[in-house]
Structures are given as structure tokens and as C-alpha cells.
Fold:
Amino acid sequence: MDYPNRLEWQIRCEFNAYCKRTLRNELIDACRESKSRRKHEVNFSDLAPHEEKQLYTVDRYFVNEDEEAFCAGGLKITAKLLAEAMHSLPEEKRQAVLLYYFFSMTDAEIAELMKVPRSTVHYRRTSSFELLKRYLEERANEWNEL
Structure:
């Protein structure tokens, strides 16, 4: 009668040994992988300055304005000048223009967001063009095509 319990105990012991062997082998694999990875990894603090500079880039906006310019109505308009023109607008008008053109929102959506009538948003947006046009005409250089 003791035979079934003994067989069950033997199966348990074999399974226990199998699990321990598997876990030990996984530990060995993890240690090997970690050791191998450490050979190829470098801490940022250990890098020389010239090595560190190879890991990133720096965008330089408005550095060479001549290359970034475009011609509109015979005037040379740079991205920097356009940004200055946008910043010259009153906050409410600038916000209406940005939301409409850069976030593709409708006048109704902007009106709901700003808690003003839709007609006010439309007026702010359209009157901003006149202000932007005046600002750019006063400050843009004449385009000299060679």
C-alpha cells in the first residue's frame, strides 16, 4: 500500500531537482549575459568630451538666416522675422492664429476653449493678418535675386 505514496514522492523529488537545475542554469545564463554586456557598455561619466559630443546633435535655428529665407511679395522673410511678427501680436490674437493654423481647430472650437463668441475669434484671426502684414512689410529686407 505504501507503493503509490513512494512513487508520488519520487516524482516530486525529480520535479524539484528539475526546477532547481533549471533555475541554476538560468542564473548562470543571466550572469554570463550581464558580464558580456558590461564588456560593451560604458558609463556616460566615463566618456571623454569628444566621445560625448558624438552621442547627440544640436539644432541651430536662425544661425544662417540667408539660407532660411523665402520670398513673398518681393520681400525676404526669415523664420526669425516671422516668429518676431507672431510675438508682436497681442496674446488673444496670437492664440487664435496658432490654434487655427497649427492645431487645425475651427473658430467654434477656439471660441469654446477661449470662452468668447465665435465672431470674436474670427475677428481676432483675420485682423491678425493685417498686423502681421504691416509688421513684415516694415521689417523685411528687399529680396535681391542674383
